[in-house]
Structure formats: C-alpha cells, structure tokens
Amino acid sequence: MTDMKARLAAVHAPSEFFDPDAGIRKSIGLIKQAAAQQVDLIVFPESFVPGFPVWNSYLRPTDGHDLFARFADASLTVDGPEIAAIRDAARSAGIAVWFAFSERATYSSGCLWNSAVLIGPDGELCVHHRKLVPTFYEKLTWNRGDGAGLRVCQMSFGKVGGLICGENGNPLARYALMAQGEQIHCASYPSVWPFRDPRTSAAYDMSEATRIRAAAHSFEAKVYTVVSTSMFDDQSMQTVCGGDTDMRAMLSACRGGGAMIVAPDGSTPGGVLYGEEGLVIADVDISALTELKQHHDMAGYYNRHDIFRLEVDFKRQKPLYWADKTQNRTEVLLTMQDESFTLLD
C-alpha cells in the first residue's frame, strides 16, 4: 500500500438549540477553521442542528409536546438550503464533512430521523445515514432509520464510514462497514446522557463509555475513530432548561462526552477535549492499518464466510407503494415532493 496520511478533526461545541440558521453559521465557521489547519475530514456531534432533545430524559412525555413541535420545525430536510450550505462550505474549503442533524421528512412535518451525511471535499453527498434505532427516550422524537446509509465512501485519504451514538456498539452495523474496507470511522454523540447508576447514584461517565466504545471498534476493525460530541454552555443551558432549576442541576451533574480521535491501539492522538469548545486534530497513518490486519482481519481471512453470512438491505424506506395494474407494469416511479416512491402492483 502506498503511503497514505490523513489529518482528522473532531468537533466539541454547543448547539444553537432550535435555531438552524445560527447552527449552520456555526458549522460553516468550524469547517473553515478546520480547513485553515489543513484538515482532511471534520466530524460533527449528534444532531448538532438543531440540538439534541435531551428534555425527553427529564420531562413527562405529555409535557414535551411544545418542545417536539419546536424541534420538528427546526429540523432539516436533506435536500434543503441548510445542507446545501454545508455542501457549499465543504466544496469551498476542499474538506470532507460528516455532518449530523435532525432530519425532517419532506412528506410529513412530524416524521423525524436522527441523521448524518458524509460530504466529499468536492461538495458531493456521498452517504446519507439515518440512525437505525432511536435509543431509549429518543423514540419520543425520532423514527427508525434504514440500511441505505450503511455505506463506506472512498476519499483520496482513505475509506470513510460512520454511525451515530449507541449504534457504534451494534456489532452487525459495524461489521457492515468493516466489510466495505472502512479505514476512518465517524462517531457522533450528544453532550450528555442523563443517567445515574442505581447502585451508587453516580452520574454516568459518558466520556469513558464513549472512549471504550470507540477503542473497541478501532481495535476490531483496524480503523481510526473520530469521536465528536456536543457540550452545554450558558446559552444552550438557558434555552433548554429555562427556569427549571431541577433540570439544570440534572444536566450539570452529568459529565459530557468529550471529543477525541482513537487509534487501533486505543490511544488518543490529539488528546481528549472536554469542558471547552474547540477541535481535536490528529495526523494519522492510514497505510499503517494494513500490517495490523495480518493479526486479525475480521472482514477478511480471520472470518469464516462459509459459516457466517450477513445480508444487509440497503434500500431506502418509503412511505407509499402504489398499485397500478392498468399499465401492466411491475414498477412505476412517482415523484412526490422531491422523493421517489416505488409503486408495485
């Protein structure tokens, strides 16, 4: 393998809650900041725009209706002007971008997904991923995703794939990316996961849990994992909590995620950024991954493809299938609000 290097950046920054315009402006600023430091790929936190719906962990479901409506209204469509602006920024800066956001369906104002797109340095949309399963209370906000985004994209500096938060612990989803030759893994996480150990009442250490998860995938897949998490500052805390002092105390007691880049040996070149806004940047050697696969190549010789088989449905889920028997056709394409639906008789 020819010598191949990459400079990677993980974002650690607060979201501009419920304000997609401000969120996109901040995102473009971070893209420019990374490009100025010759970064090849920048990775953003989970649902960076318009923020992560952490209130679902605290409020009764019946008390969260107004917040859901605000959140849905501030969510983005993948073909909308906000994602177009991120693509333009990537093209102008010549940098690849893994951008995570709350996606709204074009056919329903209340159908949302926890999504991410991988954009090439030419501004092309390479991967559009929807989180396979919303975790726990996330089901109050987001719909289940599909396999269409379980893709790895070849960049000039390596093969890039990614997953969102808890699905980074899904063995089959991770293997689907391994089996496509993934070399750089994007992992998006929220700022906090409000949870206490029922035995000790200790707050969940999300930073350590995230590092363990990332190290496991990096070791098994022989990849570099770029972990990006958001954080709370005074403004975002005020927007989410308002005058609710109990909710503020709960969020303040939970440790944040911390941004990092994790190598196959579990080390974190570039360090871990926690508690302050910024970028974690590290130079990595992609060509060094080949030697590691001589020991354990989970998608290659160290597997038994004659025993184990994984089948993945890469089709994008659609809400409508139309029976049209008059035209004596088995498949017709109907364009509805910029989405294509397969019509079957």
Describe this structure in words.
Residues 6-286 form the CN hydrolase domain. It holds the Pfam family CN_hydrolase. This is CN hydrolase domain-containing protein. The chain has 345 residues and is of the alpha/beta class. The protein has two domains: 5-292, Carbon-nitrogen hydrolase (Nitrilase/N-carbamoyl-D-aminoacid amidohydrolase), CATH 3.60.110.10; 315-345, no CATH class. The chain is built from eight helices and 14 strands. Strands 1, 2, 3, 4, 5, 6, 7, 8, 9, 10, 11 and 12 form a twelve-stranded mixed sheet that branches. A two-stranded antiparallel sheet has the order 13-14. α1 runs parallel beside α3. The radius of gyration is 20 Å and the shape is globular.
Short description:
It comes from Roseibium algicola. With 345 residues, the chain is α/β, with parallel strands linked by helices.
Give short descriptive properties of this protein.
twelve-stranded mixed sheet, 8 helices, Nitrilase/N-carbamoyl-D-aminoacid amidohydrolase, 24% strand, single chain, alpha/beta
Give the topology.
Blueprint: E1 5-13, H1 20-36, E2 41-43, H2 65-74, H3 81-93, E3 96-104, E4 112-119, E5 125-130, E6 153-155, E7 158-164, H4 171-178, E8 184-189, H5 206-221, E9 224-230, H6 234-241, H7 245-253, E10 259-262, E11 272-273, E12 278-285, H8 289-292, E13 332-336, E14 339-343
Parallel strand pairs: 1-2, 1-9, 2-3, 7-8, 8-9
Antiparallel strand pairs: 1-12, 3-4, 4-5, 6-7, 9-10, 10-11, 13-14
